[in-house]
Amino acid sequence: DTIAWENKDVFNPAAVVHEGKVWLLYRAEDTIGRYNGTSRLGLAVSDDGLHFRREPTPVFYPDVDSLKSLEWEGGVEDPRLVRTPDESEISGKFMLTYTAYDGKTARLCLAFSDDLRTWKKAGPVLQGRFRDTWSKSGAVAVEQQGENFIARRIKCQVNDNSLHQGECPGHFWMYFGDTNLFMAWSNDLVHWQPIEENGRLKAVMYPRAGMFDSRLVEPGPFALFTEKGIILLYNGMNLETGGDPALPAGAYCAGQSLFEAADPRLLKDRANDYLLRPDKPYEISGQVNQVCFIEGLVSYRGRWMLYYGTADSRIAVAMTR
Per residue, what are the HEC states of the chain? Predict the structure, then answer.
């Protein structure tokens, strides 16, 4: 039987420029799954970044495979996309971080593709004793090359037990989490080691009392490496009490942070105000009210285009002029 896989809502898209077009990999829900519907990822393509043609069937979904127990029947959620560098050990041109949800635990997972339609799943980011830890939203550090954003190795001085001593040859880095912000590093983009402190995940950024991000912080799209620092756009949620009194309780707004280029673990600066807040009818009312949730960012034809989910119900874009 045909599954009405996007019958309920579409939201929270990743974005990438490929073959001169903007491609969205977006979350869609049916109305059947026990956990508020089952999520799958659909694909849409645009010649201008505004008008999209949707593929008729999902391109990424819970399947009868080794990850079924982690993905069924909550589904696969909230993708982020980056390009992989031209290294022989990396198995695809595109890297996907996504959330697998079994109805109880969210686990940050990976997949790779050469064409954005056919994907090879690589399993959870966190392994060992952290494998069943609630984890979401992986934003990989990248460098910009024209309209491409490519995972970048970053050299830094390190001195803790989770990395070897002294000068490291360069690791890939990922920000993740949907409470505090955590980090992990990798040599091959497939196997990741979280940064720890006293046997626990070490936070590198926290919510702030009295502000738009008082309840949680969660990565947006990729983290962009520049010589002045690593720019991370992120999602913040407002507390009911103790948050920003000018915002509704539970509102999701987008913020900006800057980490040290020489050490991606060190927070250098952070904007006090949000860059995007729910103020349109389709952002205020929906499956979850008061939500602007950013996940996709492209540089396309001279414009920055930021794609985001609105009230967990629709997809919108904000652009530079």
Answer: CCCCCCCCEEEEEEEEEECCEEEEEEEEECCCCCCCCCEEEEEEEECCCCCEEECCCCCECCCCCCCHHHHCCCEEEEEEEEECCCCCCCCCCEEEEEEEECCCCEEEEEEEECCCCCEEEEEECCCHHHCCCCCCCCEEEEEEECCEEEECCECCEECCCCCCCEECCCEEEEEECCCCEEEEEECCCCCEEECEECCEECCCECCCCCCCCCCEEEEEEEEEEECCEEEEEEEEECCCCCCCCCCCCCCEEEEEEEECCCCCCCEEEECCCCCECCCCHHHHCCCCCCEEEEEEEEEECCEEEEEEEECCCEEEEEECC
Distance CA 9, CA 253 (A): 20
What is the CB-side half-sphere exposure of residue 105 using CA atoms within 13 A?
Answer: 13
Which residues contact residue 46 at a Cβ distance below 8 angstroms, ignoring those fewer than 6 apart? 21, 22, 23, 24, 52, 53
Which of the four pLDDT bands, split at 50, 70 and 90, describes residue 37?
A: very high
pLDDT single digits (tens) 155-190: 875 555 445 444 456 899 999 999 999 999 999 999
Which among 59, 77, 119 has a CA at the least distance from the CA of 95? 119
Count of alpha carbons within 13 angstroms of residue 290, beta-carbon side: 14
Q: Which of 59, 44, 77 is nearest to 218 (CA)?
A: 77
- Cis-peptide into 19, omega within 30 deg: no
One-letter amino acid identity for 86?
D
Locate 268 and state its tokens. 């250098």
Q: Are strands 148-151 and 229-237 parallel, antiparallel or unpaired?
A: unpaired
pTM of model > 0.85:
yes
Which of 76, 176, 72 minimizes the C-alpha distance to 134? 176
